[in-house]
Design a protein that fits this description.
heterodimer, A: mainly alpha, B: 306 residues, 6-stranded mixed sheet
């Protein structure tokens, strides 16, 4: 428990996490507000309120990566390991704090976006959260942010440099996952197993038939069920984090 | 008490620390001396469990660092004063360190007061001068009231007042019965601060002894002689078994002889003396001689001198 308090002090006694959280909320809620205000012709679906969650996800992952790379950048990781030489427990404490916080930011972002859509959309008759699927579309954002943060922590601890970790995360999520789709023949098969593609199926996949017009809505590719998709994404995040723990334990600090 | 036994660290083919064994006793300031790149910092990181030794081990009070319970209560260290998040306040920095080892918040204010940083405790550490950063680092080392303290080049870049403060501070800590290990590449500084010296070069132990012993053993005592009959006197001294070197200005430098002996010899041969002065070799010279072969990066002084 004390280590959780330690990591909480570390995170909140610098400014960058606050900026990242504000930016994550501002981007998702702000852009959703614009979408909602301009939604005409048809009732706004629940999915429409969470289109923007990926912007928030990237920012939250940057925050999570920073939580560990700044410790390497400024040498405080050495003080951390001096204070707790087993190295694993402070890293897990950091993960618990960052993952919980990211989950909360995700919930704030998706419910904030949803609430603002409710207020701003011309026709909000389809926005009510009436089914389990509706709840998954909105509350699921919290889980995706949490798992994404764990993945980013693992990458940060492996790479140890802010620029490197952030580039890897963003280039992978924004470039690699779309580019692999262009590989002839096998591209589509690879793409549908890419972690961020699969994670978006958890949010967007299998909407209620009434929620959107047939064939409309964001693409949700993948072989797994929505919850299976989340399990897949979370398992990858956990695997990367566990690998980073092994490396951190063995490597010279 | 710190005990290193056969401590070795290799980075690929480079051997940074080579089979190093030494002990650091409580109640004294022990200087850890060596030229830049000799392996002092690597050794200190291994003592703290930050770097894994390739061979050998180092024990603190009989235990490896990793097995210490709440280690800040046993070992305090200042390896680099810049190991602070620049946007975190001095107080927040110490607060998380204290929390991690179950130390009360009140202790943070105590150590801030000890090093005289109470007034700037809420300011961001990135804006601190080197002297203030150094004080903050020392405050961090003192948090757990540890019995063992490690400082890596603590006076580097400090003004004379700061150097004096740190010197007296370390001597005070040792006087309270603590084990204090201070690294430096300056023998003159260590001669004033440390009672014991562990001297290394290229990762190898050169000597471990008390500072006075080290200084006496390694400073060469010579006598400078000027005489209009330098040739004659030189020959007489060589006959008596002394080493004589003739300097460019025609004077003689005699090693291994007391000035009394030389005076007697001169008188017996009827040689006129214009100067007879004992010379005490400087600590710097002694240190250079000892570690000269083991300096990692030689600056070609001789070359540029020509």
């Amino acid at each position: 428990m004390t280590l959780l308090a330690v990591e909480r002090i570390k995170l909140f006694s610098t400014r960058s996490p606050w900026w990242c959280m504000l930016l994550a909320l501002g981007l998702t809620v702000g852009i959703t507000a614009i979408i909602a205000a301009n939604w005409s012709d048809s009732p706004m679906p629940v999915l429409g309120a969470v289109f923007t969650h990926t912007f928030g996800l990237y920012v939250v992952m940057v925050m999570a990566a920073l939580a560990v790379t700044t410790e390497y950048r400024f040498g405080t990781i050495k003080s951390t390991f001096q204070a707790v030489p087993d190295r694993i427990s402070p890293m897990i404490a950091k993960a618990v704090v960052v993952v919980l916080l990211s989950g909360l930011v995700g919930l704030a972002s998706s419910f904030g976006s949803w609430a603002l859509s409710w207020v701003l959309a011309a026709d909000n008759s389809e926005l009510a959260l009436t089914s389990a699927n509706d709840w998954r579309h909105v509350a699921g954002v919290g889980l995706v942010f949490a798992a994404g943060a764990l993945l980013a922590l693992g990458v940060g601890a492996l790479v140890r440099q802010t620029a490197g970790a952030v580039s890897i995360i963003l280039v992978f999520a924004l470039v690699v996952e779309s580019v692999v789709g262009f590989i002839p023949n096998i591209g589509d098969d690879i793409q549908k197993w890419m972690p961020f593609t699969v994670a978006s199926k958890f949010i967007f996949g299998d909407p209620d038939p009434s929620a959107i017009p047939n064939g409309a809505g964001p693409p949700a590719v993948g072989e797994l069920s929505p919850w299976g998709s989340f399990g897949y994404f979370a398992a990858i995040a956990l695997a990367v984090f566990v690998i980073s723990l092994v490396v951190v334990k063995r490597r010279d600090a | 008490m710190i005990e290193a036994v056969g401590l070795t660290k290799r980075y690929g083919k480079t051997v940074a620390v080579d089979n190093l064994s030494f002990t650091v006793e409580p109640g004294r300031v022990t200087g850890f001396l060596g030229p830049n790149g000799a392996g002092k910092s690597t050794t200190m990181r291994m003592i703290l469990g930050l770097d894994r030794p390739s061979a050998g081990q180092v024990l603190i009070g009989g235990k490896p660092y990793a097995q210490l319970d709440r280690p800040l209560r046993t070992v305090g260290a200042l390896l680099d004063a810049k190991w602070v998040h620049p946007n975190r306040s001095a107080r927040a920095h110490l607060l998380w360190l204290a929390k991690s080892n179950g130390l009360p918040d009140r202790r943070v204010d105590e150590v801030l007061d000890m090093v005289g940083l109470t007034k700037v405790a809420k300011r961001r550490a990135g804006g601190f001068s080197l002297g203030m950063s150094q004080r903050l680092g020392i405050a961090g080392a003192l948090l757990g009231d540890p019995k063992v303290l490690l400082f890596d080049e603590p006076v580097n870049g400090l003004d004379p007042e700061g150097i004096l403060w740190i010197r007296q501070f370390m001597q005070g800590l040792a006087a309270e019965g603590r084990t204090v290990l201070v690294s430096s590449h300056l023998l003159s500084e260590m001669a004033l601060t440390a009672q014991d010296l562990v001297v290394i070069g290229r990762g190898k132990l050169i000597s471990q002894s008390s500072t006075t012993e080290f200084v006496e053993r390694s400073t060469e005592n010579t006598v400078r002689v000027r005489s209009p009959h330098a040739d004659k006197l030189g020959a007489m001294l060589v006959d008596k078994g002394f080493t004589v070197r003739e300097d460019a200005d025609g004077s003689l430098t005699v090693s291994g002889a007391l000035s009394d002996e030389i005076g007697d010899i001169a008188a017996s041969g009827g040689v006129v003396l214009h100067e007879l002065s004992p010379q005490r070799g400087s600590l710097e010279q002694a240190f250079m001689q000892l570690t000269g072969d083991s300096v990692e990066y030689h600056a070609e002084l001789a070359e540029t001198g020509k």
